[in-house]
Amino acid sequence: MTGRRARVRAPAAGEPAPPPLAPGTRPAPGYEILRHLTRTGWLDLYDTWSEERACRCVVKVVRPDRRDEAVPRARLLREGRWLCAFSHPHLVRAYETLEWPEPLVVLETLTGETLSHLVHRLRRRPAAGDVALLGVQLCSAVHYLHGRGLLHLDLKPSNVVVDCGHAKVLDLSVARPPGRAPAGLGTFRYRAPEQARGGPLTAAADVWGIGITLYEVASGDAPFDPRGTAEVTDDGDHHRCPLPEVSTPPVGSRRRLPRALAAAIDGCLGRDPSARPTVTELAASLGAILPAYGPRMPSPGSPGDGDVATFPRPT
After folding, report:
1. Where are the alpha helices (DSSP H) in the chain?
2. Which of 55, 124, 227, 297 has its C-alpha lying 20 to 30 A from 180's C-alpha?
3. What is the pLDDT of the chain when averaged over all its residues?
């Protein structure tokens, strides 16, 4: 293996993108690809065997047709360095970040499901206690990031994995310190109004992200019509990022919830960032709900009753 990086021509318009790396490929010494997991606009994720650790892990690399672009490479390395330095029970862990032969981040393998998969798989909505507990865990991870000077800015169901009631937040690819940011940062249907507009961003943007994630988990859908899918971006691509010009419909209009839980979720989704609770206040409000409403522990084989379900737990 040489130190020279092979150049991969970006596909022309209408031309298919190059295929993912094949099983058996070694993206870096000590790692062997088992299978391709998913592809985004600029990344490939692989189920990979780590010889040093003698276990499976997830390898995150820039797509072959984007490798010559400086921004994706720098973004991936930045995320990897942060995750290697951080340690929190509700934040995905990184084992290693490599710059050669290509930028690469090695992450722990998570055995649960993303919230987006889980919510659409369940026939019934999660129990109120499970929603509140999820919110407390998200607040814990976000509070940790804020304490290290970062906003996540892309909180959404597909960036949270839940396993036996334990949540982990993924993806710091658009994270940044508080302050001014380009318009359209984040994912279309989940970004806070101030992210869509552009301008100073504060911890309140992540409170919106927690709230809209809990809204979708509790009700089964996000409050706004996505009008198609938009790519996560930090390059000012705001022409595809229309603002939610109408107030968020109360979560109670989608599903009957305990009043305190509905109020906590709705409070996160005020258009004025200063009107939203702090992360600490939100965690306290959600935590106060838990003694009365769960989380629920079903007996083996019991799906729950009424119109609610529990997140999968050990039986």
Report:
1. 70-85, 115-121, 128-147, 193-197, 203-219, 259-268, 279-293
2. 227
3. 85
Q: First CA to last CA across the chain, in angstroms?
A: 48
Share of the chain above pLDDT 70, in %: 81
**What is 31-107's CATH superfamily?**
Phosphorylase Kinase; domain 1 (3.30.200.20)
CA 269 – CA 263 distance, rounded (Å): 10
Homologous superfamily of domain range 113-309 = Transferase(Phosphotransferase) domain 1 (1.10.510.10)
Residue 113 or 5, more confident: 113
Residues forming beta bridges with residue 151, ordered by sequence position:
176
Task: Give the pLDDT confidence of 219-244 residue by residue, as tens digits.
Answer: 988 887 655 444 444 444 444 444 54
Overall pTM > 0.70: yes
Tokens 């709900």 label which residue?
A: 289
CB 177 within 8 A of CB 150: yes
pLDDT of residue 123: 76
Query: How far is Cα 152 from Cα 140, in angstroms, rounded to an integer?
Result: 13
List active site positions: 154
Q: DSSP of 277-311, one letter per residue?
A: PPHHHHHHHHHHHHHHH----PPTT---STTEEPP
| Closest CA relative to residue 33, chosen from 16, 42, 20 | 20
Sign of CA dihedral 292, 260, 141, 74: positive
From CA 170, how far away is CA 145, in angstroms rounded? Answer: 12
Gap between the Cα atoms of 63 and 288, Å rounded:
45
Query: Between vectors from CA 93 to CA 20 and to CA 25, what angle results, nearest 5°?
Result: 25
Distance, in Å, from the CA atom of 225 to the CA atom of 220, rounded to the nearest integer, reads 13
Q: How confident is the model at residue 6 (pLDDT cuts 50, 70, 90)?
A: very low
How many Cβ atoms are within 10 Å of 236's Cβ, its own excluded? 13
